[in-house]
C-alpha cells in the first residue's frame, strides 16, 4: 500500500509524468532514425521505470552480450552522463526537504538506469 501511495505522489509531484514523457519522446526520435532503435527500446525502458519506480529495480539481463556493452559506451558518451547528472542534481534538490526525500531517492535509483540502460530489465521487488 505504501508503494502505491509513493508511486502516485511521484507521478503528481515527483516529476514521474514529466520524465516518462521526456524519455518517451526520446524513444520516438530514436525509432524514427531506425539505426538507433536499440536506444529507443532503452528509452522506453527508462520511461516505464521512471513512471512507477517504487517497488521496482533494475537487474542485468543474463543474455546481454558484447553488443549491449558497446552500445552502452556509445550511450554514455552521447546521453548517459548528462541524464545521470540531471537525476543526481534533481535528487539532491528534492532531498532538501523531508517530504521530498523519497522522491530524491527515486531519482537516485534512476541514475544507473540513465547512465547504463542497455542489457538491463525492470523487475518487481516481490
UniProtKB/TrEMBL annotation:
GO terms for cellular component: plasma membrane. The chain crosses the membrane at residues 7-25, 31-51, 63-82, 88-108. Keywords: Membrane, Transmembrane, Transmembrane helix. This is Inner membrane component domain-containing protein. The keyword 4Fe-4S does not apply. Residues 5-56, 70-120 form the Inner membrane component domain.
Amino acid at each position: 500500500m505504501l508503494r502505491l501511495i509513493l508511486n502516485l505522489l511521484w507521478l503528481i509531484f515527483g516529476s514521474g509524468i514529466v520524465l516518462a514523457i521526456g524519455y518517451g519522446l526520446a524513444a520516438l526520435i530514436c525509432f524514427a532514425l531506425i539505426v538507433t532503435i536499440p536506444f529507443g527500446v532503452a528509452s522506453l525502458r527508462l520511461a516505464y521505470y521512471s513512471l512507477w519506480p517504487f517497488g521496482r529495480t533494475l537487474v542485468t539481463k543474463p543474455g546481454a552480450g558484447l553488443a549491449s556493452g558497446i552500445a552502452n559506451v556509445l550511450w554514455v558518451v552521447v546521453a548517459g552522463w548528462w541524464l545521470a547528472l540531471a537525476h543526481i542534481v534533481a535528487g539532491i534538490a528534492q532531498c532538501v526537504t523531508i517530504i521530498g526525500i523519497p522522491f530524491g531517492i527515486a531519482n537516485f535509483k534512476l541514475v544507473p538506469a540513465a547512465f547504463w540502460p542497455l542489457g538491463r530489465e525492470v523487475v518487481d521487488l516481490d
